[in-house]
Amino acid sequence: TPLVTYYNLIDQSSEYPMMKVMGKIGYDTWTLGNHEFNYGLPTLNRIIKDAKANNINVLSANIYKDDNTNFVEPYYIKSFDVNGKTIKVGVIGMTTKTVPSWEDAAHYKGLKFNDLVDEAKKWVPKLRKEGADIVIVAAHSG
């Protein structure tokens, strides 16, 4: 869209408007998808910074840096009071592993995208161990 083009290519110093809007309407989680890599990592890192500034958790459990650490947070756990009882909900972010087949390699340099199912098998037990009563996967699978 013209708005995306403007903020990704022309005005790269202003706060990214989508993150501001998402923060204002109460989003607390955003999972990376394939289109987040369309303009390369410098642009994506700016958008991630703006998301965090608007109290939005940026998640993807299956994107790793070359040093095998997660590119962004893999999950978070949020507590809710339901009729006087605390319920913990774990949210795991997952991104399509096919980003490398769609994007220019320069746009995701230093990152690898693991299989979503394999990563879910890894992370769900960790969230359960940390007390999550419910686990939700927020996935952008292409």
Secondary structure elements and their pairing?
Layout: H1 2-10, H2 17-24, E1 29-31, H3 41-53, E2 57-59, E3 63-65, E4 75-82, E5 85-95, H4 99-102, E6 111-113, H5 116-129, E7 134-140
Parallel strand pairs: 1-2, 5-7
Antiparallel strand pairs: 3-6, 4-5
3D structure, described in words:
The protein is α/β, with parallel strands linked by helices and 142 residues long. The chain has a single domain (2-140), classed as Purple Acid Phosphatase, chain A, domain 2 (4-Layer Sandwich). It has five helices and seven strands; from the N terminus they run ααβαββββαβαβ. The protein has a three-stranded mixed β-sheet with strand order 4-5-7, with helices on one face. The chain has a two-stranded parallel ribbon with strand order 1-2. A two-stranded antiparallel sheet has the order 3-6. Strand 1 (29-31), helix 3 and strand 2 (57-59) form a beta-alpha-beta unit. The radius of gyration is 16 Å and the shape is globular.
